[in-house]
Write a structure and sequence with these properties.
Helix content is 31%, strand content 22%. It folds into two domains: 63 residues, no CATH class; 62 residues, no CATH class. It is built from four helices and seven strands, in the order ββββαβββααα. The chain is of the alpha+beta class. The protein has a four-stranded antiparallel β-sheet, with helices on one face. Strands 5-6-7 form a three-stranded antiparallel β-sheet. Helix 2 runs antiparallel to helix 4.
């Protein structure tokens, strides 16, 4: 990307940017085998795709529909663009058998206090708790909340 005049962002090493004429730019996102190219000039984007395609095996999937598991949605009329993680969240809920859970703003009542007295007290309760992958569920939701 540096050979093509792009600069790598310090804040995110997966993002490259190239400033073009009249304050326009091309942004190139590369994460493992996921790639996204955005910019003002379709000709320059197509030229970049052609150059990259001559050096790497690539498949042009056309207009971006998703990136890193996030859906990309557009409202061209109102010039709006937004990302959605709805599919990812539904997949996580399904994986942890919570697809039929009722949504609430706060999962526990605000006055409810957790304590060690609520921990499993016998082997049967401990065995039941081991079957529930709490850390994986929380980690999956934290990924959606923090990483993306």
């Amino acid at each position: 990307m540096l050979e093509h005049g792009f600069q790598r962002l310090e804040a995110d090493h997966c993002v490259y940017i190239k400033r073009c004429d009249q304050g326009k730019y091309i942004i190139f996102l590369l994460y493992v085998d996921d790639m996204l190219i955005v910019g003002h000039d379709k000709n320059k984007i197509n030229r970049l795709k052609k150059d990259l395609g001559s050096k790497f095996a690539m498949k042009d999937l056309g207009l971006a529909q998703q990136i890193l598991g996030m859906q990309i949605m557009r409202d061209r009329k109102n010039k709006r663009l937004w990302l959605s993680q709805e599919k990812y969240i539904k997949k996580v809920l399904h994986r942890f058998n919570m697809k039929d859970a009722k949504p609430v703003g706060t999962p526990l009542a605000t006055h409810f206090k957790l304590s060690t007295e609520l921990c499993p007290n016998n082997d049967k309760e401990k065995d039941e708790m081991r079957k529930i992958p709490y850390a994986s569920a929380v980690g999956s939701l934290m990924y959606a909340m923090v990483c993306t």
